[in-house]
Amino acid sequence: MRRSRSGVFARVILATGGAYFVTSSTLSVFCIILFASGMPRVDVVALGMMLGFILYLCLALWVFSSRRLWQVLTMFVLVLTAENCIFFVIGH
Amino acid sequence: MDQNFRRSMGWMHTWAGVVLGSILFAIFWMGTLSVFDSEIDSWMEPATRLPAATSPLPLETFRPSLNDAITAKAAFWNVIMPDDRQAVVHVHYRTRQKFITREFDPVTGKELPNSGTLGATGFIFPFHYTLEIRLMNIGEWVVGLASMSMLALCVTGIIIHRKIFSEFFTFRPNKNSKRLLLDIHNMAGVLGLPFHIILTFSGLIILSATFFPSNVKAVYPNPRDYFFEVNGLTFLPIKSGKTGAPVASLDKAALFARKVWAGAEPHTILVVNPGTTTSRMAFFRECDRQVVVDRDVISFEGPTGKYFSRSPTPHLIIRAERFLSGLHLIQFHHWALRWFYFILGLGSCVLIGTGFLFWLETRRKTQNNTFGFRIVEGLTSGSVTGIIIATLIFFVANRLLPPDAYLFGHDRATLEVWSFYLSWLATFLHGWMRPRQMWIEQSTTIGVLALLAALLNWITTGDHPLRTLFHRYLWPVAGMDGVLVVGAALALITSMRLSRRARLPNTLRIPSGEHL
């Protein structure tokens, strides 16, 4: 399969770094919402960790399988922004 | 399935495998050895090969070492009682400078001479999850990245594997070497798939707090609180007190703990900040009859010995998390399962190794002399056969170095570790300088070194196979010698077969066909 060098580089960065940050911020929001709805916080964090790796895996595979990289990138940026807004509003 | 999707997954499988395969092999190899870490310890420390005691020693026997810890202003001091896998009592404490381990005879309570080795629990097991790169936890992050890619490799491997069941029963040992490698790769992958996935996933979960700190920070003002709460260590966060306070009777506290647990024995006894007015004693119940690692902890105030707290029963999610980590840490007592873990772990190593070899074999005809090919070939030899050689050198050095070895300011334990790293480096260079021949030469080296290690164990300790087989307490040594001899035989057979094939004229080899 032929791919341009810069395309490969972008995919690797997006799959490792991008997917990581999206997972990480999704987990934070997940934790805050569940904690606010009354779940004990140890449980919230432990559950989030377990689901986090699966989410990360799916995102990374998506980066490599999608045909249009800019779609993935836009999606990641949107999700990150939205989640940081939620994080900012509900906050600590 | 969409052809393009499958091709992109195949591309990812190939390159993630080549780039991170070396690290994955190192992790799986060291993890496989860690299954028998206590047994390897007793092989590497002959002084600890002792029959098990019938009844536990009183804890006050270890009071002198506790006093040493107090004098050294240790942050903690602990005793790990003997169990089915190790007969001796281990005492650990951390002074300002270093981590100290002392071993005691389980019957007489006398201190055993310093073994001068890190052994499997001190080197092989930490290498498994930190790669011995402690700086800023880089090692753990690399292990995490490799583990995530292992999960991705498992998933993409299934996707690109079209006929999962028909190929599962296909094994073509007499076809060309490329087919054979792919068949072994598929078989090891499919047979061990649940093992690869569960072990990788649970390994990630064990280190999850390192990988997703923001998750913890979102609901915990102080991330340490999560660590204490999830591990049932809520008695730990204590303010530092004044020095000069005594530590109350350990046996009296142990008696109390035994009564609460209806007779169950403590496995670990911990004293935090010993010798200060705020010290705490904690007793961790043994839990080797279950997969879930939920050690009940009863803690006491150090200076007075008054009951302080007991860890609460964990919630369902925490139990699920501890079940997964229990599956990974194998602290339960079950010999058959332990061997099964070991064999499946070797299966994972075979999976990674054959993946590498298949990559090389498909490209040997077209890119034999390109720089990239040579790099991967050298990398493969160093990371597959090389780490095995380095481990064997580690064992051989352990038997050969005199007890008071000291060189260039390094003690015996450090010299052993250096012998590991230097020989590992040498195998990379060897693989890079002698392409093709290195497989034969390194397999032979593995065979010879494994036999040498088993032989050296006999010569230096007198525990020959007949003796070790007939004494129950020497079975760990017998098992290790057995694995060494079987491994040596396999390596020598492999090298013989390889060299026979290398001598065949080139025309007899079936030309390589399709390209992945």
Q: What's the layout of helices and strands?
A:
The complex is a heterodimer of chains A (92) and B (516).
Chain A: H1 5-36, H2 41-65, H3 69-90
Chain B: H1 3-34, H2 37-44, H3 63-71, E1 76-80, E2 89-94, E3 99-104, H4 119-130, H5 138-160, H6 177-191, H7 193-206, H8 208-211, H9 213-219, H10 223-230, H11 250-260, E4 266-272, E5 280-285, E6 297-301, E7 307-310, H12 316-329, H13 335-367, H14 371-400, H15 412-433, H16 437-461, H17 465-470, H18 475-503
Antiparallel strand pairs in B: 1-2, 1-4, 2-3, 4-5, 5-6, 6-7
Rg of chain B over CA atoms, rounded to whole Å, is 25 Å
Order of helices and strands of chain B: HHHEEEHHHHHHHHEEEEHHHHHHH
Question: How would you name the oligomeric state of the polypeptide chains in this document?
Answer: heterodimer
Which strand order does the major sheet of chain B show?
3-2-1-4-5-6-7
**How is the main sheet of chain B built?**
7 strands, antiparallel
**Backbone structural class of chain A:** mainly alpha
Q: Helix tally of chain B? A: 18
Distance between the termini of chain A: 47 Å
Order of helices and strands of chain A: HHH
The residue-averaged pLDDT of chain B reads 84
For the terminal residues of chain B, how far apart are their CA atoms? Answer: 18 Å
Number of domains of chain A: 1
Number of strands of chain A: 0
